[in-house]
Specification:
Mean pLDDT: 89
Number of strands: 0
Structural class: mainly alpha
Number of domains: 1
Strand content: under 5%
Helix content: over 70%
Shape: elongated
Number of helices: 2
Radius of gyration: 15 Å
């Protein structure tokens, strides 16, 4: 399939969501002083874990169906 601009934009959207989640989670895990006095630590991590899983699943789905 020749990739069109819609496909590229969609894929980049999921890549950005994945990268955002990884960046935030890395900060939480490796530099907890950067999130000092953060009262919703677990809730935020749950949110970004879900975002990461969803983005990776969407990227896999695109790959399976449209990158043949």
């Amino acid at each position: 399939m020749e990739k069109n601009l819609f496909y590229i934009a969609l894929k980049r959207t999921y890549e950005a969501e994945r990268d955002e989640a990884l960046a935030v989670m890395t900060t939480f895990f490796e530099k907890p002083t950067g999130v000092a006095e953060h009262t919703t630590f677990i809730e935020d991590l749950k949110k970004y874990t879900k975002q990461l899983a969803d983005a990776e699943e969407c990227l896999r789905t695109l790959e399976i169906h449209f990158e043949k």
